[in-house]
Design brief:
The complex is a heterodimer of chains A (73) and B (517). With 73 residues, chain A is mostly beta strands. Chain A has no helices and eight strands. Chain A has a single domain, classed as RNA polymerase II/Efflux pump adaptor protein, barrel-sandwich hybrid domain (OB fold (Dihydrolipoamide Acetyltransferase, E2P)), CATH 2.40.50.100. In chain A, a hairpin with a 2-residue loop joins β4 and β5. Chain A starts with a strand and ends with a strand. Chain B is α/β, with parallel strands linked by helices. Chain B has three domains: 241 residues, 2-enoyl-CoA Hydratase, Chain A, domain 1, CATH 3.90.226.10; 188 residues, 2-enoyl-CoA Hydratase, Chain A, domain 1 (Alpha-Beta Complex); 35 residues, no CATH class. Chain B is built from 20 helices and 17 strands. In chain B, β3, α4 and β4 form a beta-alpha-beta unit.
Chain lengths: 73, 517
Protein backbone atom coordinates (compact mmCIF):
# COMPACT_ATOMS: atom_id res chain seq x y z
CA UNK A 1 0.00 0.00 0.00
CA UNK A 2 1.42 3.33 -1.01
CA UNK A 3 0.85 6.45 1.01
CA UNK A 4 1.48 10.09 0.15
CA UNK A 5 1.28 13.03 2.52
CA UNK A 6 0.33 16.37 1.03
CA UNK A 7 1.93 19.24 2.92
CA UNK A 8 1.35 22.94 2.66
CA UNK A 9 4.15 24.35 0.45
CA UNK A 10 3.91 27.73 2.19
CA UNK A 11 1.96 29.55 4.90
CA UNK A 12 -1.53 30.69 3.95
CA UNK A 13 -5.26 30.29 4.46
CA UNK A 14 -7.31 27.35 3.19
CA UNK A 15 -9.83 29.00 0.93
CA UNK A 16 -11.73 25.82 0.14
CA UNK A 17 -11.42 22.07 0.56
CA UNK A 18 -12.52 20.18 -2.55
CA UNK A 19 -12.46 16.58 -1.28
CA UNK A 20 -13.76 14.52 1.66
CA UNK A 21 -12.32 11.54 3.52
CA UNK A 22 -12.95 8.40 1.51
CA UNK A 23 -13.06 10.18 -1.85
CA UNK A 24 -11.27 8.54 -4.74
CA UNK A 25 -8.96 11.05 -6.49
CA UNK A 26 -6.83 10.96 -9.62
CA UNK A 27 -3.32 12.32 -9.81
CA UNK A 28 -3.41 16.11 -10.30
CA UNK A 29 -6.99 16.48 -9.02
CA UNK A 30 -7.34 19.61 -6.90
CA UNK A 31 -7.54 18.82 -3.17
CA UNK A 32 -7.87 22.33 -1.82
CA UNK A 33 -7.22 25.95 -2.65
CA UNK A 34 -4.57 27.66 -0.54
CA UNK A 35 -4.57 31.43 -0.50
CA UNK A 36 -1.21 33.06 0.09
CA UNK A 37 0.20 36.40 -1.03
CA UNK A 38 -3.26 37.22 -2.47
CA UNK A 39 -2.87 34.26 -4.83
CA UNK A 40 -5.09 31.22 -4.93
CA UNK A 41 -2.94 28.15 -5.34
CA UNK A 42 -4.56 24.80 -6.06
CA UNK A 43 -2.85 21.93 -4.21
CA UNK A 44 -3.16 18.79 -6.27
CA UNK A 45 -3.05 15.05 -5.59
CA UNK A 46 0.49 13.70 -6.10
CA UNK A 47 -0.96 10.27 -6.95
CA UNK A 48 -4.18 8.43 -7.68
CA UNK A 49 -5.78 6.97 -4.57
CA UNK A 50 -8.22 7.40 -1.74
CA UNK A 51 -8.25 10.29 0.73
CA UNK A 52 -7.64 8.71 4.12
CA UNK A 53 -7.04 11.77 6.23
CA UNK A 54 -7.85 15.51 6.07
CA UNK A 55 -6.38 17.83 8.68
CA UNK A 56 -7.74 21.16 7.48
CA UNK A 57 -10.98 22.93 7.01
CA UNK A 58 -12.11 26.03 5.16
CA UNK A 59 -10.82 29.29 6.56
CA UNK A 60 -8.02 27.67 8.55
CA UNK A 61 -4.54 29.20 8.63
CA UNK A 62 -1.74 26.77 7.87
CA UNK A 63 2.03 26.95 8.23
CA UNK A 64 4.52 25.91 5.58
CA UNK A 65 5.16 22.16 5.75
CA UNK A 66 1.93 21.42 7.63
CA UNK A 67 0.40 18.01 6.92
CA UNK A 68 -2.89 18.61 5.12
CA UNK A 69 -3.98 15.39 3.42
CA UNK A 70 -3.04 11.73 3.34
CA UNK A 71 -3.72 9.72 0.20
CA UNK A 72 -3.52 5.94 0.12
CA UNK A 73 -3.65 3.50 -2.74
CA UNK B 1 66.10 -3.07 -17.07
CA UNK B 2 65.74 -4.68 -20.46
CA UNK B 3 62.60 -4.37 -22.54
CA UNK B 4 61.17 -7.77 -21.68
CA UNK B 5 61.45 -7.49 -17.92
CA UNK B 6 60.52 -3.80 -18.11
CA UNK B 7 57.30 -4.64 -19.92
CA UNK B 8 56.53 -7.38 -17.46
CA UNK B 9 57.03 -5.00 -14.58
CA UNK B 10 54.84 -2.35 -16.21
CA UNK B 11 52.02 -4.82 -16.80
CA UNK B 12 52.31 -6.18 -13.28
CA UNK B 13 52.14 -2.72 -11.77
CA UNK B 14 49.17 -1.70 -13.90
CA UNK B 15 47.35 -4.90 -13.11
CA UNK B 16 47.85 -4.29 -9.40
CA UNK B 17 46.61 -0.70 -9.64
CA UNK B 18 43.45 -1.86 -11.40
CA UNK B 19 42.63 -3.97 -8.31
CA UNK B 20 42.30 -0.68 -6.40
CA UNK B 21 42.19 -1.23 -2.61
CA UNK B 22 41.77 -4.98 -2.97
CA UNK B 23 38.89 -7.42 -3.13
CA UNK B 24 37.62 -6.92 0.42
CA UNK B 25 37.49 -3.13 0.06
CA UNK B 26 35.76 -3.35 -3.30
CA UNK B 27 33.14 -5.68 -1.80
CA UNK B 28 32.64 -3.26 1.07
CA UNK B 29 32.07 -0.40 -1.39
CA UNK B 30 29.50 -2.49 -3.27
CA UNK B 31 27.78 -3.43 -0.01
CA UNK B 32 27.31 0.26 0.73
CA UNK B 33 25.44 0.37 -2.57
CA UNK B 34 28.28 2.32 -4.17
CA UNK B 35 30.23 1.65 -7.32
CA UNK B 36 34.02 1.76 -7.28
CA UNK B 37 35.79 4.76 -8.79
CA UNK B 38 36.70 2.76 -11.90
CA UNK B 39 33.14 1.51 -12.36
CA UNK B 40 31.90 5.05 -11.92
CA UNK B 41 34.21 6.37 -14.60
CA UNK B 42 33.10 3.62 -16.99
CA UNK B 43 29.44 4.46 -16.41
CA UNK B 44 29.99 8.19 -16.75
CA UNK B 45 31.99 8.17 -19.97
CA UNK B 46 31.19 6.92 -23.46
CA UNK B 47 32.14 3.21 -23.48
CA UNK B 48 35.82 2.49 -23.93
CA UNK B 49 36.95 6.12 -24.07
CA UNK B 50 38.83 6.42 -20.77
CA UNK B 51 42.56 6.98 -21.01
CA UNK B 52 44.12 7.21 -17.59
CA UNK B 53 47.05 9.26 -16.37
CA UNK B 54 48.94 8.47 -13.20
CA UNK B 55 47.89 4.84 -12.83
CA UNK B 56 51.37 4.16 -11.40
CA UNK B 57 51.04 6.82 -8.70
CA UNK B 58 51.59 5.85 -5.09
CA UNK B 59 51.79 7.63 -1.79
CA UNK B 60 55.09 9.41 -1.11
CA UNK B 61 55.01 8.27 2.53
CA UNK B 62 57.57 5.50 3.01
CA UNK B 63 55.88 2.18 3.69
CA UNK B 64 52.53 3.27 2.19
CA UNK B 65 53.40 2.53 -1.45
CA UNK B 66 51.64 -0.81 -1.71
CA UNK B 67 48.49 0.36 0.01
CA UNK B 68 47.94 3.32 -2.31
CA UNK B 69 47.32 2.26 -5.94
CA UNK B 70 46.95 5.35 -8.19
CA UNK B 71 47.33 7.15 -4.86
CA UNK B 72 43.61 6.86 -4.27
CA UNK B 73 42.49 9.19 -7.03
CA UNK B 74 41.84 7.98 -10.55
CA UNK B 75 42.18 10.60 -13.27
CA UNK B 76 42.31 10.87 -17.00
CA UNK B 77 40.59 11.84 -20.22
CA UNK B 78 37.54 10.42 -21.87
CA UNK B 79 34.48 11.39 -23.87
CA UNK B 80 30.90 12.26 -23.09
CA UNK B 81 28.56 12.33 -26.09
CA UNK B 82 31.68 12.28 -28.24
CA UNK B 83 33.27 15.34 -26.62
CA UNK B 84 36.48 15.19 -24.58
CA UNK B 85 36.33 15.72 -20.81
CA UNK B 86 38.70 15.33 -17.89
CA UNK B 87 37.54 13.15 -15.01
CA UNK B 88 39.00 12.70 -11.50
CA UNK B 89 37.44 10.12 -9.18
CA UNK B 90 38.23 9.55 -5.52
CA UNK B 91 38.87 5.85 -4.92
CA UNK B 92 37.06 5.03 -1.70
CA UNK B 93 38.65 1.56 -1.57
CA UNK B 94 42.06 3.17 -1.02
CA UNK B 95 42.23 4.56 2.52
CA UNK B 96 38.59 5.69 2.24
CA UNK B 97 39.40 7.93 -0.72
CA UNK B 98 41.25 10.40 1.50
CA UNK B 99 43.33 12.81 -0.54
CA UNK B 100 47.01 12.09 -0.90
CA UNK B 101 49.73 14.50 -1.90
CA UNK B 102 50.47 12.66 -5.13
CA UNK B 103 47.09 11.51 -6.38
CA UNK B 104 45.06 14.55 -5.60
CA UNK B 105 47.56 17.38 -5.63
CA UNK B 106 50.23 16.52 -8.23
CA UNK B 107 47.98 14.55 -10.56
CA UNK B 108 44.97 16.85 -10.52
CA UNK B 109 47.13 19.91 -11.08
CA UNK B 110 48.51 18.37 -14.29
CA UNK B 111 45.17 17.26 -15.70
CA UNK B 112 43.49 20.53 -14.76
CA UNK B 113 46.16 22.48 -16.62
CA UNK B 114 45.53 20.54 -19.83
CA UNK B 115 41.77 20.81 -19.42
CA UNK B 116 41.98 24.57 -19.14
CA UNK B 117 44.55 25.07 -21.90
CA UNK B 118 42.81 22.80 -24.39
CA UNK B 119 39.28 23.66 -23.37
CA UNK B 120 37.75 20.52 -21.87
CA UNK B 121 35.18 20.30 -19.05
CA UNK B 122 36.34 18.78 -15.75
CA UNK B 123 34.24 16.40 -13.69
CA UNK B 124 35.28 15.35 -10.19
CA UNK B 125 33.57 12.38 -8.56
CA UNK B 126 33.76 13.11 -4.85
CA UNK B 127 33.77 10.35 -2.26
CA UNK B 128 36.25 11.25 0.46
CA UNK B 129 36.38 12.51 3.99
CA UNK B 130 39.17 15.02 3.40
CA UNK B 131 42.95 14.95 3.27
CA UNK B 132 44.79 11.77 4.15
CA UNK B 133 46.42 11.21 7.46
CA UNK B 134 49.44 11.05 7.82
CA UNK B 135 50.12 13.05 4.62
CA UNK B 136 48.73 16.26 6.10
CA UNK B 137 50.25 15.89 9.60
CA UNK B 138 52.88 18.26 10.91
CA UNK B 139 53.90 21.70 9.73
CA UNK B 140 55.53 20.17 6.67
CA UNK B 141 52.52 17.97 5.96
CA UNK B 142 49.96 20.77 6.09
CA UNK B 143 52.30 23.15 4.27
CA UNK B 144 52.62 20.66 1.43
CA UNK B 145 48.86 20.26 1.14
CA UNK B 146 47.49 23.79 1.24
CA UNK B 147 44.61 24.43 -1.10
CA UNK B 148 45.79 24.28 -4.75
CA UNK B 149 45.07 27.94 -5.40
CA UNK B 150 46.30 27.72 -9.00
CA UNK B 151 43.07 25.93 -9.78
CA UNK B 152 41.13 29.07 -8.88
CA UNK B 153 43.02 31.36 -11.24
CA UNK B 154 41.15 30.56 -14.45
CA UNK B 155 37.52 30.72 -13.41
CA UNK B 156 34.86 29.54 -15.84
CA UNK B 157 37.20 28.92 -18.75
CA UNK B 158 35.66 25.48 -18.84
CA UNK B 159 32.54 23.99 -17.27
CA UNK B 160 33.52 22.48 -13.92
CA UNK B 161 31.21 19.78 -12.58
CA UNK B 162 31.45 18.21 -9.13
CA UNK B 163 29.55 15.25 -7.76
CA UNK B 164 28.98 14.19 -4.16
CA UNK B 165 28.84 10.40 -4.09
CA UNK B 166 29.62 9.52 -0.48
CA UNK B 167 30.27 11.19 2.84
CA UNK B 168 32.27 14.18 1.64
CA UNK B 169 34.18 16.52 3.94
CA UNK B 170 37.03 18.88 3.20
CA UNK B 171 38.39 18.51 -0.36
CA UNK B 172 35.30 17.23 -2.19
CA UNK B 173 33.18 19.89 -0.48
CA UNK B 174 35.61 22.62 -1.59
CA UNK B 175 35.48 21.23 -5.12
CA UNK B 176 31.69 21.30 -5.07
CA UNK B 177 31.67 24.87 -3.76
CA UNK B 178 33.90 26.06 -6.60
CA UNK B 179 32.08 24.09 -9.30
CA UNK B 180 29.73 25.51 -11.90
CA UNK B 181 27.38 22.59 -11.38
CA UNK B 182 27.04 20.18 -8.46
CA UNK B 183 25.11 16.92 -8.35
CA UNK B 184 24.52 15.07 -5.10
CA UNK B 185 23.39 11.47 -4.78
CA UNK B 186 20.63 11.16 -2.18
CA UNK B 187 21.86 9.53 1.02
CA UNK B 188 25.30 11.16 0.83
CA UNK B 189 26.65 14.12 2.73
CA UNK B 190 28.54 17.31 1.95
CA UNK B 191 30.02 19.38 4.77
CA UNK B 192 33.23 20.95 6.00
CA UNK B 193 33.89 18.38 8.73
CA UNK B 194 32.32 15.04 9.55
CA UNK B 195 30.14 14.17 12.54
CA UNK B 196 32.98 12.26 14.22
CA UNK B 197 35.30 15.25 14.22
CA UNK B 198 32.46 17.51 15.32
CA UNK B 199 31.65 15.30 18.25
CA UNK B 200 35.28 15.16 19.36
CA UNK B 201 36.01 18.83 18.83
CA UNK B 202 32.76 20.52 19.73
CA UNK B 203 30.74 17.89 21.56
CA UNK B 204 28.06 18.28 18.90
CA UNK B 205 26.13 15.11 18.09
CA UNK B 206 24.59 15.13 14.65
CA UNK B 207 23.94 12.68 11.82
CA UNK B 208 25.55 13.14 8.39
CA UNK B 209 22.07 13.55 6.92
CA UNK B 210 21.29 16.45 9.28
CA UNK B 211 24.71 18.00 8.85
CA UNK B 212 24.94 17.93 5.08
CA UNK B 213 22.28 15.69 3.56
CA UNK B 214 20.55 16.36 0.29
CA UNK B 215 17.48 18.03 1.76
CA UNK B 216 19.60 20.60 3.59
CA UNK B 217 21.39 21.55 0.38
CA UNK B 218 18.22 21.36 -1.71
CA UNK B 219 16.04 23.56 0.45
CA UNK B 220 18.24 25.53 2.83
CA UNK B 221 21.74 26.16 1.45
CA UNK B 222 21.19 26.01 -2.31
CA UNK B 223 24.78 24.86 -2.70
CA UNK B 224 23.80 21.84 -4.80
CA UNK B 225 22.23 22.15 -8.25
CA UNK B 226 20.74 18.72 -8.86
CA UNK B 227 19.91 15.56 -6.91
CA UNK B 228 20.23 11.97 -8.05
CA UNK B 229 18.28 8.95 -6.85
CA UNK B 230 21.34 6.75 -7.30
CA UNK B 231 24.79 6.78 -8.89
CA UNK B 232 23.64 5.87 -12.40
CA UNK B 233 21.10 8.68 -12.25
CA UNK B 234 23.91 11.00 -11.16
CA UNK B 235 25.89 10.17 -14.31
CA UNK B 236 22.85 10.71 -16.52
CA UNK B 237 22.41 14.13 -14.92
CA UNK B 238 26.07 15.07 -15.50
CA UNK B 239 25.90 13.94 -19.13
CA UNK B 240 22.68 15.83 -19.68
CA UNK B 241 24.02 19.01 -18.09
CA UNK B 242 27.11 18.90 -20.29
CA UNK B 243 24.93 18.42 -23.38
CA UNK B 244 23.65 21.96 -22.78
CA UNK B 245 27.14 23.39 -22.27
CA UNK B 246 30.00 24.31 -24.59
CA UNK B 247 33.31 22.51 -23.98
CA UNK B 248 34.80 25.86 -23.00
CA UNK B 249 34.05 29.56 -22.76
CA UNK B 250 35.15 30.34 -26.33
CA UNK B 251 32.51 28.16 -27.93
CA UNK B 252 28.75 28.04 -28.30
CA UNK B 253 27.00 25.04 -26.77
CA UNK B 254 26.51 22.22 -29.28
CA UNK B 255 23.65 22.57 -31.73
CA UNK B 256 21.12 19.75 -31.29
CA UNK B 257 18.82 19.43 -34.32
CA UNK B 258 15.14 18.96 -33.57
CA UNK B 259 12.01 18.03 -35.48
CA UNK B 260 10.13 20.56 -33.38
CA UNK B 261 9.45 23.39 -35.83
CA UNK B 262 10.68 26.83 -34.77
CA UNK B 263 7.36 28.53 -35.54
CA UNK B 264 5.10 25.95 -33.85
CA UNK B 265 2.03 27.65 -32.38
CA UNK B 266 1.68 27.14 -28.64
CA UNK B 267 -2.10 27.49 -28.27
CA UNK B 268 -2.04 25.33 -25.14
CA UNK B 269 -0.57 28.20 -23.10
CA UNK B 270 -3.97 29.89 -23.27
CA UNK B 271 -5.42 27.02 -21.25
CA UNK B 272 -2.53 26.91 -18.80
CA UNK B 273 -2.81 30.59 -17.86
CA UNK B 274 -5.93 30.91 -15.64
CA UNK B 275 -8.49 33.60 -16.43
CA UNK B 276 -8.59 34.82 -12.85
CA UNK B 277 -5.53 36.97 -12.20
CA UNK B 278 -5.31 35.73 -8.61
CA UNK B 279 -5.22 32.07 -9.63
CA UNK B 280 -1.84 30.30 -9.54
CA UNK B 281 -0.60 27.94 -12.26
CA UNK B 282 2.52 25.92 -12.95
CA UNK B 283 5.02 27.98 -14.93
CA UNK B 284 6.86 24.77 -15.88
CA UNK B 285 3.87 23.98 -18.10
CA UNK B 286 4.33 27.24 -20.00
CA UNK B 287 8.07 26.57 -20.35
CA UNK B 288 7.45 23.03 -21.53
CA UNK B 289 5.02 24.29 -24.17
CA UNK B 290 7.53 26.78 -25.57
CA UNK B 291 10.88 24.94 -25.66
CA UNK B 292 12.11 22.27 -28.08
CA UNK B 293 10.34 18.94 -27.55
CA UNK B 294 8.98 20.10 -24.18
CA UNK B 295 12.35 19.33 -22.57
CA UNK B 296 14.04 21.42 -19.89
CA UNK B 297 16.74 20.86 -17.25
CA UNK B 298 16.15 22.51 -13.89
CA UNK B 299 18.98 23.95 -11.79
CA UNK B 300 18.35 24.07 -8.01
CA UNK B 301 14.80 22.69 -8.27
CA UNK B 302 13.96 22.88 -4.55
CA UNK B 303 15.72 26.10 -3.53
CA UNK B 304 13.33 29.07 -3.27
CA UNK B 305 10.83 27.57 -5.66
CA UNK B 306 9.20 30.93 -6.38
CA UNK B 307 11.78 31.25 -9.18
CA UNK B 308 12.64 28.71 -11.85
CA UNK B 309 16.10 28.56 -13.40
CA UNK B 310 16.42 25.99 -16.15
CA UNK B 311 18.29 25.16 -19.32
CA UNK B 312 16.43 24.17 -22.47
CA UNK B 313 16.83 24.45 -26.23
CA UNK B 314 15.16 26.72 -28.74
CA UNK B 315 15.48 25.60 -32.35
CA UNK B 316 18.40 23.40 -31.32
CA UNK B 317 20.37 26.00 -29.35
CA UNK B 318 20.80 26.11 -25.57
CA UNK B 319 18.95 28.86 -23.71
CA UNK B 320 18.76 29.68 -20.01
CA UNK B 321 15.30 30.45 -18.66
CA UNK B 322 14.60 32.57 -15.59
CA UNK B 323 10.90 32.41 -14.77
CA UNK B 324 8.73 33.35 -11.83
CA UNK B 325 6.74 30.41 -10.47
CA UNK B 326 3.27 31.54 -9.29
CA UNK B 327 2.74 28.16 -7.57
CA UNK B 328 5.14 29.21 -4.80
CA UNK B 329 4.61 32.42 -2.86
CA UNK B 330 2.68 33.73 -5.85
CA UNK B 331 6.00 34.02 -7.68
CA UNK B 332 7.44 36.53 -5.20
CA UNK B 333 11.16 35.83 -5.02
CA UNK B 334 12.97 35.92 -1.69
CA UNK B 335 16.72 36.05 -0.96
CA UNK B 336 17.11 32.51 -2.29
CA UNK B 337 15.50 33.40 -5.60
CA UNK B 338 17.90 36.34 -5.95
CA UNK B 339 20.96 34.14 -5.33
CA UNK B 340 19.63 31.58 -7.74
CA UNK B 341 18.98 34.13 -10.49
CA UNK B 342 22.37 35.82 -10.07
CA UNK B 343 24.37 32.59 -10.14
CA UNK B 344 22.36 31.36 -13.13
CA UNK B 345 23.03 34.59 -15.05
CA UNK B 346 26.75 34.17 -14.29
CA UNK B 347 26.68 30.56 -15.54
CA UNK B 348 24.80 31.36 -18.75
CA UNK B 349 26.80 34.49 -19.51
CA UNK B 350 30.13 32.72 -18.97
CA UNK B 351 29.18 29.91 -21.34
CA UNK B 352 27.48 31.88 -24.10
CA UNK B 353 23.91 30.88 -23.36
CA UNK B 354 21.18 33.45 -24.20
CA UNK B 355 18.73 34.23 -21.42
CA UNK B 356 14.93 34.23 -21.55
CA UNK B 357 12.91 35.86 -18.77
CA UNK B 358 9.25 34.99 -18.13
CA UNK B 359 7.55 37.43 -15.75
CA UNK B 360 4.71 36.63 -13.41
CA UNK B 361 5.57 38.13 -10.06
CA UNK B 362 3.82 40.39 -7.56
CA UNK B 363 7.25 41.77 -6.59
CA UNK B 364 9.93 40.63 -4.23
CA UNK B 365 9.17 38.81 -1.02
CA UNK B 366 9.27 41.38 1.73
CA UNK B 367 9.24 41.15 5.49
CA UNK B 368 11.61 40.76 8.39
CA UNK B 369 12.92 37.32 7.44
CA UNK B 370 13.91 38.51 3.97
CA UNK B 371 15.51 41.67 5.37
CA UNK B 372 17.55 39.65 7.85
CA UNK B 373 19.00 37.85 4.88
CA UNK B 374 20.17 41.08 3.20
CA UNK B 375 17.31 41.44 0.74
CA UNK B 376 18.39 44.81 -0.75
CA UNK B 377 21.88 43.43 -1.31
CA UNK B 378 20.57 40.25 -2.91
CA UNK B 379 18.30 42.19 -5.23
CA UNK B 380 21.21 44.37 -6.30
CA UNK B 381 23.61 41.45 -6.84
CA UNK B 382 21.03 40.07 -9.27
CA UNK B 383 20.85 43.50 -10.96
CA UNK B 384 24.64 43.76 -11.12
CA UNK B 385 24.86 40.35 -12.78
CA UNK B 386 22.16 41.42 -15.23
CA UNK B 387 23.95 44.70 -15.95
CA UNK B 388 27.27 43.02 -16.70
CA UNK B 389 25.89 40.11 -18.71
CA UNK B 390 26.45 40.36 -22.45
CA UNK B 391 24.60 37.35 -23.84
CA UNK B 392 21.34 38.04 -25.70
CA UNK B 393 18.37 38.53 -23.42
CA UNK B 394 14.70 38.19 -24.30
CA UNK B 395 12.11 39.17 -21.75
CA UNK B 396 8.40 38.33 -21.84
CA UNK B 397 5.79 39.67 -19.42
CA UNK B 398 3.25 36.86 -19.08
CA UNK B 399 1.05 38.35 -16.40
CA UNK B 400 2.07 40.37 -13.33
CA UNK B 401 5.30 42.25 -13.08
CA UNK B 402 5.36 44.63 -10.16
CA UNK B 403 7.88 46.95 -8.64
CA UNK B 404 11.60 46.33 -8.57
CA UNK B 405 11.10 42.74 -9.72
CA UNK B 406 10.14 44.10 -13.16
CA UNK B 407 13.66 45.54 -13.46
CA UNK B 408 15.33 42.34 -12.23
CA UNK B 409 13.40 40.31 -14.78
CA UNK B 410 15.01 42.41 -17.51
CA UNK B 411 12.11 44.82 -17.86
CA UNK B 412 12.33 48.17 -19.67
CA UNK B 413 15.89 49.49 -20.03
CA UNK B 414 17.23 46.66 -17.90
CA UNK B 415 19.31 44.77 -20.39
CA UNK B 416 16.85 42.94 -22.59
CA UNK B 417 17.41 42.98 -26.35
CA UNK B 418 13.75 42.20 -26.93
CA UNK B 419 11.05 42.88 -24.37
CA UNK B 420 7.44 42.00 -25.12
CA UNK B 421 4.23 41.34 -23.24
CA UNK B 422 1.24 39.07 -23.55
CA UNK B 423 -2.08 40.95 -23.66
CA UNK B 424 -2.62 39.67 -20.10
CA UNK B 425 0.37 41.68 -18.81
CA UNK B 426 -0.11 43.77 -15.69
CA UNK B 427 2.83 46.12 -15.15
CA UNK B 428 2.89 48.46 -12.19
CA UNK B 429 4.71 49.49 -9.05
CA UNK B 430 2.27 47.52 -6.88
CA UNK B 431 -0.86 45.35 -7.10
CA UNK B 432 -4.06 47.36 -7.68
CA UNK B 433 -5.64 46.14 -4.42
CA UNK B 434 -2.76 47.29 -2.23
CA UNK B 435 -1.82 50.23 -4.41
CA UNK B 436 -5.26 51.82 -4.21
CA UNK B 437 -5.01 51.85 -0.42
CA UNK B 438 -1.51 53.31 -0.49
CA UNK B 439 -2.25 56.03 -3.02
CA UNK B 440 -5.95 56.85 -2.51
CA UNK B 441 -6.66 55.46 0.96
CA UNK B 442 -8.11 58.59 2.61
CA UNK B 443 -9.87 59.62 -0.60
CA UNK B 444 -11.66 56.28 -0.83
CA UNK B 445 -12.70 56.47 2.82
CA UNK B 446 -14.07 59.97 2.29
CA UNK B 447 -16.13 59.00 -0.76
CA UNK B 448 -19.92 58.75 -0.51
CA UNK B 449 -19.81 55.07 -1.39
CA UNK B 450 -16.29 53.88 -0.50
CA UNK B 451 -16.87 50.41 -1.96
CA UNK B 452 -18.05 51.76 -5.33
CA UNK B 453 -15.22 54.28 -5.41
CA UNK B 454 -12.71 51.53 -4.66
CA UNK B 455 -14.06 49.36 -7.47
CA UNK B 456 -13.98 52.26 -9.90
CA UNK B 457 -10.35 52.98 -9.00
CA UNK B 458 -9.35 49.33 -9.34
CA UNK B 459 -10.88 49.20 -12.85
CA UNK B 460 -9.08 52.40 -13.78
CA UNK B 461 -5.82 51.08 -12.32
CA UNK B 462 -6.14 47.78 -14.21
CA UNK B 463 -6.53 49.70 -17.45
CA UNK B 464 -3.43 51.76 -16.65
CA UNK B 465 -1.40 48.58 -15.94
CA UNK B 466 -2.27 46.85 -19.20
CA UNK B 467 0.67 46.77 -21.63
CA UNK B 468 -0.83 49.23 -24.16
CA UNK B 469 0.62 52.42 -22.72
CA UNK B 470 4.11 50.94 -22.40
CA UNK B 471 3.89 49.63 -25.97
CA UNK B 472 2.66 52.97 -27.28
CA UNK B 473 5.69 54.76 -25.88
CA UNK B 474 8.04 51.94 -26.91
CA UNK B 475 8.98 51.02 -23.36
CA UNK B 476 8.29 47.49 -24.55
CA UNK B 477 8.88 46.31 -28.10
CA UNK B 478 5.51 44.73 -28.71
CA UNK B 479 2.51 42.88 -27.36
CA UNK B 480 2.44 39.39 -28.82
CA UNK B 481 -0.19 36.69 -29.06
CA UNK B 482 0.69 34.00 -26.51
CA UNK B 483 0.46 31.32 -29.20
CA UNK B 484 3.28 33.04 -31.11
CA UNK B 485 5.71 32.97 -28.17
CA UNK B 486 7.90 30.14 -29.46
CA UNK B 487 8.10 31.65 -32.90
CA UNK B 488 8.87 35.08 -31.46
CA UNK B 489 11.73 33.75 -29.30
CA UNK B 490 13.22 31.78 -32.18
CA UNK B 491 13.04 34.72 -34.59
CA UNK B 492 14.61 37.00 -31.96
CA UNK B 493 17.45 34.55 -31.22
CA UNK B 494 18.10 34.27 -34.93
CA UNK B 495 18.44 38.05 -35.17
CA UNK B 496 20.60 38.27 -32.04
CA UNK B 497 23.00 35.58 -33.21
CA UNK B 498 24.08 38.23 -35.71
CA UNK B 499 25.49 38.12 -39.21
CA UNK B 500 28.78 36.79 -37.86
CA UNK B 501 27.01 33.95 -36.07
CA UNK B 502 28.95 34.92 -32.95
CA UNK B 503 26.26 37.01 -31.30
CA UNK B 504 25.82 34.56 -28.43
CA UNK B 505 29.50 34.75 -27.45
CA UNK B 506 29.65 36.99 -24.37
CA UNK B 507 32.33 39.42 -23.25
CA UNK B 508 32.75 37.41 -20.02
CA UNK B 509 32.54 40.26 -17.53
CA UNK B 510 31.09 37.82 -15.00
CA UNK B 511 33.63 35.06 -15.47
CA UNK B 512 35.55 35.91 -12.29
CA UNK B 513 32.51 36.25 -10.05
CA UNK B 514 32.37 33.94 -7.03
CA UNK B 515 30.81 30.51 -7.52
CA UNK B 516 28.69 30.86 -4.40
CA UNK B 517 26.68 34.09 -4.30
Amino acid sequence: MAQEIVESPMPGIIKSVCVAVGDQVNENDTLCILEAMKMETPLVAPMTGKISEINVSEGQSVKGGEKLFVIES
Amino acid sequence: MNMKSGLEELRKRREKALQMGGKAKVEKQHKLGHLTARERIDKLLDPGTFSEVGILNQSDIPGMEDRTPADGNIAGFGKINGRTVVVCAADHTVLAGAEGRVGTFAKEARTTKIAVEKGYPIITLGDAGGARIPDIMGSDGLSSMTFPIEGLKYPRKIPYVATIMGECFGGPSWMAAKADFVVMVKGTCMAVSGPRVLELAMGEKITPEELGGWKLHAEVTGQVDAFAEDEEHCFRIVREFLSYMPSNCDEEPPYVPTEDTPNRKVDEVMDILPDAPNRAYDMYKIISAIVDDGKYFTIKPYYDQSLITCLARMNGRTVGIIANQPLFFAGAGGPGACEKAASFIVLCDSFNIPLIFLHDTPGFFVGLEAEKRKMPGRIMVWMEALALSTVPKISIVIRKSYGMAYSNMAGTNCGSDFLVAWPTADISFMSPQTGINVVYGPMVQAAKDPQAERERLIKEWEYQNAPWKAAARHFIDDVIEPRDTREFINKSLDILRGSSGRGFISKKYLQAWPTVL
